[in-house]
Every structure is written in C-alpha cells, then in structure tokens.
Please model this.
Amino acid sequence: MDKKQYKVAICQESVIQGGRFRVVLGLIEALNSLGIEPDLLSFRLRIKPNEVEKIYGRTFRANFYELPHPPLPNDYSILLFNRLLSRFTSGYDLIINTSNSLAFLPRHKKALSYVFFPRESRIQSRAFSVHNPERRLNAFSLEGVSRKLLRMIYKFGKVQPAHQIVAMTEFTKSTLQEQYPLLDSARLPIVYPPVEIQNFLSEYGGKRNRAIVTIGRFDEEKRQIEQIHLAAQIPEISFHIMGFVGDQKYFNQCKALIEELGLQNVCLYPNAPHDQMVDILQNSKYFLHTLINEPFGITAVQAIAAGCLPIVHDSGGQREVVPYAELRYRQMSEIRQMINDLERKEEPLLAQLHANLLKRAQDNYDEDVFTRKIKPILLARLV
Model:
C-alpha cells in the first residue's frame, strides 16, 4: 500500500463476546497488517480492549468508540444505527458493516458489509426465532406485532449498489439471495471466519476422557437446558458446558436443573478463560453443538482442531463445517444413539474421520486463509 494513512471504521450496533467478535478481531488484524489502525464504532460495547487478550488470547491495534444512542429494542436499534452511520462515518476512507443488516446504510462508495446472517431474514421468519423453528410466533403478541412493523420498515431498505457484500458461508449466501433475489452471485464472495487453529491443535485420541464439551453463550437459543437433560440420559459420560453468561437468569436455571436432577456428570464453566477452554477441549473426545441454523460455528472448528469429534445439528453452516451425516443430528433424541454408534466404531476409522475434518478446517477456516482472502477485498475498497 502507499503511505497514505487510511481511516477505516468497523461498524457494529452491539459488540459482545462470541464468534461474531472473533470475526471483527480478524478484520482488525487484517487491517493492522496493512498498517491501518481502525476504529470500532458501536452503540453498545460489552467488551473492552483490555479484556480481549484474556478472552481470545490476541493482541491488536484499534480504537473503540461507544456512540450516543436512545434506548431502543435490538432490531430498531440496528436500523437507527445504520441510518446514523452517514453522520458518524463521513471522514472515513472505508466503512465495514458487521451489523448483519443491509438496510438504510449510507451511500458511501467505499463500503463493505460482512454478513453472518441477514437480519432481514430473521424479521421475515414466521417462527419465534430462526434458531427455534419449532416454536411459532404468535402474530398478536407484542413480538408478533413488532415483527410485522419491522417487515413494513424493511420494505423501504434497499441494498446500495456501490457496496461490496461478503457472505460468511454458503448458507449465508443462499439466505441473502433469498432475501434479495436481484443480488448478483458475483457480488457475493464467500470468506469463512478466521479460526486460530494452531492455538487449539492437538492430535485426535480415542482413549481420551469420554467427555462431551459444549461451548456457547448461556442463552435459551443455545439449548444448554436440553444439554443437561441429555446428560441425565448418559450418566457414564461427563459433560463440560462452557460459555459467556449472556443471560444470568437462564444460567441460574441451568444450575438449578443440575441440582434438581442430582447430576454428578455435569460441570458448568461460566465465562471460562481461553486457556481453560483449550485444555478441556484437548482432553475430551466429543464436542456437541446444539444451536439450530448456526450460520457457521467457530467453536466446532476449534474443537476439531483440538482433537474432538464434533456432533452438530443438521442445519445452517454446520453442514459445511461437518459434511458427514454420521456426525449430524436432526433431533436431540438421536444424540445418545449417535454416541453409542461412534463408540462401536473401530478407532482407525474414527481417526481417519477426524483427520478429514481437520484437513478441511485447515484448508478453509484457518485465520491465515481468512486474511489471505479478505485483504484483496479490503484493498479493492480502499484504492
């Protein structure tokens, strides 16, 4: 790059711990490698710069700014955030939108949206949540009426023709094209999220602890309650349930259920530090992921790198991460039998299965692959 000091803003309405912030961190690191120290603009910063190294084991150069905002429900806050970006980003050479909504963004010629899962598709869903498709939304409830209003608002939101859109996965791309049929497929390159595979790398070992690890924010959609009920059915296997406590009430329900059922094979690890998460993964045999329609699933890739066999829901981007039917389930009731079937397989077959998963991860999801693919896209927007 030339010696010009480019100003870049990464814009996300709400920033919390989790896989989405890991992608934001990957974008920051890619920009740092180009000599750019970006600004992170948000209405709600729930993670501080000095916490990043402890949680993610990473260092970076960026400036965090929390913008003034009125108290609004999440979906309305995202729309307002997008609408106000024209005011906050007028002096930037590039703005990167990671809020998952393409509506009402500024007509900035140098703009890029990295989309995990389009917010528009969540609004259009007739289910209570895309992650809870079995639960229908009551059209006359407060949420139902709000969803109807949001659909009307989104009719006025158009994709800016000058913007570059990057899809996180094939699943993301197909969902975007369903939402915006006029989007040219050539305008939707896929760049998988960055996963620090080397930091988790450990050989698969069939004689590891017969333990199941789960990682995810403690939240109803992540289904930790269902994981605990599953653990009650398989008392001979230990369950290590790790995650950021995003919902204290739900976390307390998980603790109470373990006590109520008198389970000795379940341990909760709220807000587990990075090193502890890696250690538990590297010493366990299975990784379980129970979110339905997960757009990608960074933790599943981390688990594969750490030597675990993943068991994931047969939906969303997990089909890309885990392309083997014997490791995907449709109903939670299938998981116990799946584990029994895996336990009966000969170890060389399981080792080869894991080796195939690891190679796929290294070829497609490693952080170096992310950087190699995202940097030309960033440069094309800057120059």
Q: What stands out?
A: The longest helix spans residues 347-364. The longest strand covers residues 209-215. The mean pLDDT is 92. The CA atoms of residues 95 and 111 lie 5 Å apart.
